[in-house]
């Protein structure tokens, strides 16, 4: 599926790509609304509707991913609530071998994520995957999410790359479309970002189930 000889730069998303998206879906859809209800002594169903409505209002924006924004908006310590269930953070199958092989190759490998640094730090501490990257790019540092075409211009300014020989793997197809519009030449998605949900069958971009399907040479 990938001609590795034609790839010199690899951009990898984190949530739903390297890590199981089940943690994030459970946190935002269940744990956060429930704890919000407990902290503010509100009806749980009402709290669930309130939190989901607020999340929907900023979907796809930088605030949608921002721990500080949600801590302020909901008057809860979102980072602390994430740590309450950090045992659920899980690396997807074959990811560590995939990262190890990329790290040992001459390719530049960057973690490129919309995750806020407070959430990112928790996940890196739990998984240890940070050691495999040549750099970590956080959209909050660039002040624009990956869904925005301007993100890729900002990324190129900080970490120059040749678009035609760059591979991006991301579970978010809006992000992949943004990258394609910029000109990134190799794009791939995940068919089952959340292991607790059904595999996707209607992805616009080529997809894999696990990373052993595209393992680079040892």
What is the CATH domain class of the largest domain? Alpha Beta
Q: Tell me the number of structural domains.
A: 2
Question: CATH topology of the largest domain, what is it called?
Answer: Rossmann fold
Task: Bin the strand percentage.
Answer: 5-15%
Kindly state the number of beta strands.
6
SSE order, one letter for each helix or strand: EHHHHHEHEHHEHEE
- Number of helical elements: 9
Structural class: alpha/beta
Distance separating the two termini: 17 Å
Approximately how much helix is present in the residues? 40-55%
**How does the major sheet shape up?**
6 strands, parallel
Give the rounded overall mean pLDDT. Answer: 96
By oligomeric state, this entry counts as single chain
CATH superfamily of the largest domain: HAD superfamily/HAD-like
For the largest beta sheet, what order do the strands appear in spatially? Answer: 3-2-1-4-5-6
- The whole-angstrom Rg is 18 Å
Global geometry: globular
Secondary-structure blueprint of this entry?
Blueprint lengths: L8 E4 L9 H19 L3 H14 L9 H8 L3 H7 L10 H10 L3 E6 L3 H11 L7 E4 H4 L7 H9 L7 E4 L3 H10 L3 E5 L16 E2 L10
Parallel strand pairs: 1-2, 1-4, 2-3, 4-5, 5-6
Helix pairs in contact: 1-2
Textual characterization of the structure:
- The chain is α/β, with parallel strands linked by helices and 218 residues long.
- It folds into two domains: 4-20 and 90-214, HAD superfamily/HAD-like (Rossmann fold), CATH 3.40.50; 23-87.
- 42% of the residues lie in helices and 11% in strands.
- It contains nine helices and six strands.
- It has helices spanning 22-40, 44-57, 67-74, 78-84, 95-104, 117-127, 139-142, 150-158, 173-182, and strands at residues 9-12, 108-113, 135-138, 166-169, 186-190, 207-208.
- A six-stranded parallel beta sheet has the order 3-2-1-4-5-6.
- β2, α6 (117-127) and β3 (135-138) form a beta-alpha-beta unit.
- α1 crosses α2.
- The longest helix is centred in the N-terminal third of the chain and has 19 residues, at 22-40.
- It is globular and about 60 Å long.
- The mean pLDDT is 96.
- Pfam families: HAD_2.
- It comes from Candidatus Litorirhabdus singularis.
- This is GMP/IMP nucleotidase.
């Amino acid at each position: 599926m990938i001609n590795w000889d034609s790839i010199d730069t690899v951009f990898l998303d984190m949530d739903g790509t390297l890590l199981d998206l089940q943690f994030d879906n459970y946190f935002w859809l269940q744990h956060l609304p429930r704890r919000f209800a407990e902290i503010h002594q509100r009806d749980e169903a009402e709290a669930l509707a309130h939190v989901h409505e607020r999340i929907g209002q900023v979907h796809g924006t930088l605030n949608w991913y921002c721990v500080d924004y949600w801590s302020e908006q909901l008057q809860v310590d979102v980072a602390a609530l994430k740590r309450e269930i950090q045992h659920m953070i899980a690396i997807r199958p074959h990811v560590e071998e995939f990262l190890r092989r990329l790290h040992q190759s001459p390719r530049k490998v960057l973690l490129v994520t919309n995750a806020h640094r407070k959430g990112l730090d928790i996940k890196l501490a739990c998984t240890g995957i940070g050691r495999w990257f040549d750099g970590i790019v956080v959209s909050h540092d660039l002040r624009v999410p990956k869904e925005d075409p301007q993100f890729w211009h900002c990324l190129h300014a900080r970490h120059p790359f040749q678009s035609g020989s760059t591979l991006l793997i991301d579970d978010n197809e809006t992000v992949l479309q943004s990258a394609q519009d910029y000109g990134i030449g190799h794009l791939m998605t995940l068919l089952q970002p959340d292991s607790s949900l059904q595999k996707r069958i209607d992805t616009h971009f080529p997809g894999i189930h696990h990373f052993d399907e595209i393992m680079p040479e040892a």
